[in-house]
Specification:
Layout: H1 2-62, H2 86-107, H3 115-125, H4 133-147, H5 155-172, H6 177-195, H7 199-208, H8 218-239, H9 258-287, H10 296-310, H11 319-326, H12 332-351, H13 359-380, H14 388-404, H15 407-418, H16 424-437, H17 458-468, E1 484-485, H18 490-498, E2 504-508, E3 514-519, H19 524-527, H20 538-541, H21 555-564, E4 569-574, E5 577-586, H22 587-606
Parallel strand pairs: 1-2
Antiparallel strand pairs: 2-3, 4-5
Helix pairs in contact: 1-4, 1-5, 1-6, 1-8, 2-4, 2-10, 3-5, 3-6, 4-5, 5-6, 6-7, 6-8, 7-8, 7-15, 9-12, 9-13, 9-14, 9-16, 10-12, 11-13, 12-13, 13-14, 14-15, 14-16, 15-16
Length: 607
Amino acid sequence: MAQRNKMARQFRKFASARMPAELSSAGKWTLTFVLIGIIAGLGSILFHYLCQVGLHYFMDMVAGYRPPAPAGEHHLLPPTTTSLNRWLLLVLPAVGGLFSGWLVYTFAPEAEGHGTDAAIDAYHHGGGFIRGRVPIIKTLASAITLTTGGSGGREGPIAQIGAGFGSFLATRLKMTDRDRRIMMAAGVGAGVGSIFRAPLAGALFAAEVLYRDPEFESEVIIPAGISSVVAYCLFCLVFGWGSLFESPDFLFRNPLELGPYFVLALVLVATGALYVKSFYGITALFHNWGIPNHVKPAIGGLCTGIIGFFLPQCLAFGYGFAQMALHSQLTVPFLLALALGKILTTSFSIGSGGSGGVFGPSIVIGGAMGGVVGSIFHQIMPGVVTEPGAFVVVGMAGFFTAVSNTPISTIIFVSEMTNSYHLLMPSLAVCSVCYLTSQKWTIYRNQVQNKVASPAHVGDFFVDILQSLHVKDLMDQVKKVELIPQNMPFMEFKRYFARTKQHYFPVMDENGRLIGIFSSTDIRSVLFSQEIEQLVVMKDIATADIIVTTMAEDLNTVMAKFTTRNIDSLPVVREDDHGILIGMLNRREVIAFYNQQVLDMKDRARQ
């Protein structure tokens, strides 16, 4: 009892000494992520205002086009009475592309395209660093592109606003690259989670979108969660609570419905492949075109306007049409034209160098294709597929999974956006099929395969891998060497040295036990001093302060010993008796063994 009380007192003393420091650190980090959430939330509010005002003055007042809004959003300004003018719809995206291109390529060329991919690249290759001007230019350019008819989503600019502030704050506070990456990713999650009213999905998305494999950046989830909740609350305080879309209370009750859902998955995979191929095919076309970059978004906007002349529903955001599809208010031909036209307008608007996100269009395309499949099966087997709108919800999730390799966060995203949680099972089934059959392509080109392949984790995995390996794993690389007698005259050693390629020489006593070691570098002072070489024995040259290793020691410790004295070879001795030499282990063999282990891990990851 006395012993237990003593241990309890020691623990309380230890805890009281550490707790203030730990609480202080936790409080500092929480405050940091709350601040990122506030800035991301304010950025979402500002960008939403810009988009609403731009749509009112450009699309409504100028061209007379008033697309429907999703149930969770309302027009901030009353609609005008301007009649629809398709000819203005044809040229308006080109005008917007001209201004957007001038902004981007004059002030921040890295703000072109969809911003989430740029944030992914900064995470893996840039230490989380984003130039301070990029979020500002991205916001303005995206607002111009999207409100003049360009097809894109809001998550790209919002992701860069949050990511840019997280990066800026980490830089000003002189934090490490690791901390900057985490803060940048938290900004991404906060921005995306707030603008789409899906805070949980925003946090998971920021951690999952970094990799092609179904892998999460675990150190990002909690920070992104804090920032995302704060940003979401700010956004909803201004624009109202609730989900982006309103959907009926869809239920999954018939296992036979999984058959049509499986067909939907295959349709989504094929459509996703078309989307990615179209997007990057047009991107490559404009990239290789030998005209000034400033003009390219205008040409892409003109191509978008031509499509919009015939299919106005493919311009701007298109969320309102996804809302109508949820209530089965659109025909199959209309939905099919919406999906295919949206693929082309998004490819031309963003692939030409315009600015916008790719998540928003993916939701519309996936929802439209889900509506097509659901409506067809409802006509064929109305007793099994009773609600075509349910296929719209699952189609949104499955399509974005097929093009982004983010199955988990996408399922949560769509569930939060549509407030339709009863479709989690069919969504999981469809997203699993879509993910497994579409891993060859992704709309996020800067995703890496997994943590092993990420430059951001090179140092982490170097230590992790070396700690999991031991000297006994390199037994075939431990070289047998000759022990030099401690009383061997230096003149005799010179004759031995002339015929050996050995660089490190263990020294033994009369009982054959290891007592010292020297290298070929250590003999230079004697080798070029002929007046003393007759008097020297090898014990005089050897150092008795020997750094050794054993079979049980991990390779991370071994590498640390190599660097302690900048030596290239270590004696391997018995664990129970350091005087008995087993052999010598070279630094080069350890590094080669590590490199082979990394290659093997990458090969296994690709299989």
